Amino acid sequence: MLRGIDVSSHQTEFDTDGVDFVFIKSTEGRSYVNSKLGGQVKRARDAECVVGFYHFLWPGNPKEQAKYFVSRTPEKAGDLLAADWEQTGDGTRASSKDKDRFIREVKRLRPDHRVLLYCNRTFWRTHDTSSYAGDGLWIADYGTAGKPRVEADWRIHQYTDRPLDKNVADFSSKQTMRDWAEG
User: Are 70 and 31 in contact (CB under 8 A)?
Assistant: First the structure.
């Protein structure tokens, strides 16, 4: 298992010691871009981590959100992309159909990159209607690292958010993860 973290603009500093991969929030909806994106990408790349980017999905306009995401997200071979599907700050959520359309559109726009679905266990079990996770499921279920409580194949498991979001990935090495990311 590889060790990783995911960060947003809330993490001005993060440690990359012992970290194999870093997912960075890039965009949200159709108007937000992470103001710390450039520095966070540099820190992760300087540490030779596998880098991924995620978009916080809002209800409606999935194709426009996908275009917004890829237009504002760095593009480099071996990077991963993800849809962050969860409840918004105003208590709404994108539909399962919107989630599927978003992932498919990102895959169309960036065909040389793997696109994952990030969601928590509740969303996967109660809101998902298609079991579509693009190229892989990144599941949040807090507990034992590498043992999410879902009956589904997964690639990445977020097992805690203390002191920040920590993850494990089911790959034998960073190079294996990069090779998989390049498809």
Answer: no
H or E, element range at 16: none
Separation between Cα atoms, residue 48 and residue 88, nearest integer Å: 32
Nearest partner of 60 among 21, 20, 2, 101, judged by Cα: 101
DSSP 162: S
- In 3D space, the residue among 52, 129, 51, 54 whose CA is nearest the CA of residue 85 turns out to be 54
**Each residue's pLDDT tens digit in the chain (183 positions)?**
999 999 999 987 899 999 999 999 999 999 999 999 999 999 999 999 999 999 999 999 999 999 999 999 999 999 999 999 999 999 999 999 999 999 999 999 999 999 999 999 999 999 999 999 999 999 999 999 999 999 999 999 999 999 999 999 999 999 999 999 987
CA-nearest of 36, 18, 16, 17 to 26 is 36
Identity of the residue numbered 110: R
